[in-house]
Amino acid sequence: MRSISGHWVVPRIRRSRTNTYSSAWLGIDGYRNSSLIQTGTGQDFVNGKPVYYPWWEILPAPETKINYPVSPKDHMYARISRISGSKWRIVLINKTKGWTFKKTVPYTGPATSAEWIIEAPSLNGQTTQLANYGKTAFRKSRVNGKNPLLKPSNRFIMVQNNQVVSTPSLPNKKRDGFTVAYGSRLPKPQMRTRKK
Question: How far is CA 56 from CA 16, 26, 67, 154, 173, in A?
Answer without folding.
Answer: 26, 10, 11, 23, 30
